[in-house]
Amino acid sequence: MINIEQLVLQAKRDGASDIHIICGLPPKYRKDGNIENMSNDPCTYEDCMEMAHELAGNEYDRFDSWGELDSADTFAGNRCRIHIFKQQGIPSLALRILREEIPDVEKLGLPPAVLSLTNLHKGIVLVTGETGSGKSTTLAALMDRINHTRKCHIVTLEDPVEYLYKPDLCAINQREVGKDTKSFSEGLRASLREDPDVILIGEMRDRDTIETAITAAETGHLVFGTLHTGSASDAVDRIVQVFPADSQTQIRLQLSMTLCAVLTQQLVARKGGGRALAAEYMAVTDAIRNLIRSGNTPQIANAIATSAAIGGQTMDQALVKLVRSGAITRDTALHYAKEPDYVKKNAI
């Protein structure tokens, strides 16, 4: 039988982020962004079935019916996010290894201006990026900073609950979609009756959730959410385009008044192994509000590039800084650049 505890220990020791179990293949993990074998012994059909029963537990019938199941658990003393799914009728596993402790937000390599977001009292803050770019870790670090510095009520909506907070100055309720509430949108609507100061939405994935998030911000709540977009301007467009054309002008107006900041992350190969965080940061200024209202989102990148005085930076500026600090190579920066000519000219 597959021993999940041993696999997690091995992955932690080797600095891997994800474990993959697939019938007929050896257990694999993602290390420095690449998929590698953990052993030479392939997983059998019996291994995969036993793993699914063990990890799904009382939820196995639901998994068997739906074909996928999300959860979280602790193995070898480490919190992990679990996704069991079927492929060709056979269970497979993708397991994300989370940090053992919620990291200090100052140690993540984020733009310094991001720290000020924990002092906000209302509005929307978006953390965006592709899957595996560290969004959950950043949000957990921001929530934990609020937990230790402010006396307020935090409500989170997660799928599944990943990091577990230890309440300090804050009262904290962590609600899991599928267990504690039916959906992000229903949980978010309910949260407005739960006297929250801060609301964390694990994923703003549909119109109802986005619309309620905007309403929550308009009524004086601080809302943190995530999107799978590669830039601040893409995040604005994604939100607006969820709505029908005849509503988009109104949504742009509401978003321009409620959006406070967008942080976009990606993890890039670090010199000598490991990965470095590159982050675009947009603090919403009057100029950017006007661009959002008017629909001129292609101009947002230029506005960010000239906002260094308030801590703003584009993704390309972040990559150039990493090259100049010696953290990544010039070739790596060019691979991830939005405008390679800018990186070629400045990454020296």
Task: Put the structure in a nutshell.
By secondary structure, this protein is α/β, with parallel strands linked by helices.
Could you please describe the fold and organization of this structure?
- With 348 residues, the protein is an alpha/beta fold.
- The protein folds into 2 domains: 4-97, Beta-Lactamase (2-Layer Sandwich); 105-313, P-loop containing nucleotide triphosphate hydrolases (Rossmann fold).
- 36% of the residues lie in helices and 25% in strands.
- It is built from 13 helices and 13 strands.
- The chain has helices spanning 4-14, 45-56, 60-66, 135-149, 184-191, 207-218, 232-241, 248-258, 286-294, 300-305, 315-324, 330-336, 340-346; strands spanning 18-21, 28-31, 34-37, 68-75, 78-87, 90-97, 123-128, 153-158, 171-176, 198-201, 222-227, 259-269, 275-283.
- The strands form 2 sheets. A 7-stranded mixed sheet has the order 9-8-10-11-7-12-13, sandwiched between helices.
- Helix 11 (315-324) packs parallel to helix 13.
- The longest helix has 15 residues, at 135-149.
- 41% of the residues are buried.
List its salient traits.
single chain; alpha/beta; Beta-Lactamase; Rossmann fold; six-stranded antiparallel beta sheet; 25% strand
Order of the strands making up the biggest sheet: 9-8-10-11-7-12-13
Tally the helices: what do you get? 13
Relevant CATH superfamily of the largest domain: P-loop containing nucleotide triphosphate hydrolases
Radius of gyration: 21 Å
Gap between N and C termini, in Å? 52 Å
Low-confidence stretches: none
Question: What name is given to the CATH topology of the largest domain?
Answer: Rossmann fold
Please state roughly what percent of the residues sit in beta strands, choosing from under 5%, 5-15%, 15-25%, 25-35%, 35-45% or over 45%: 15-25%
State mean pLDDT (0 to 100 scale): 94
Shape: globular
String of helices and strands: HEEEHHEEEEHEEHEHEHHEEHHHHH
Structure classification:
alpha/beta
Main β-sheet description: 7 strands, mixed
Q: What's the architecture of the largest domain in CATH terms? A: 3-Layer(aba) Sandwich
DSSP helix fraction: 25-40%
CATH class of the largest domain: Alpha Beta
- In total, the number of domains comes to 2
Task: Say how many strands there are.
Answer: 13
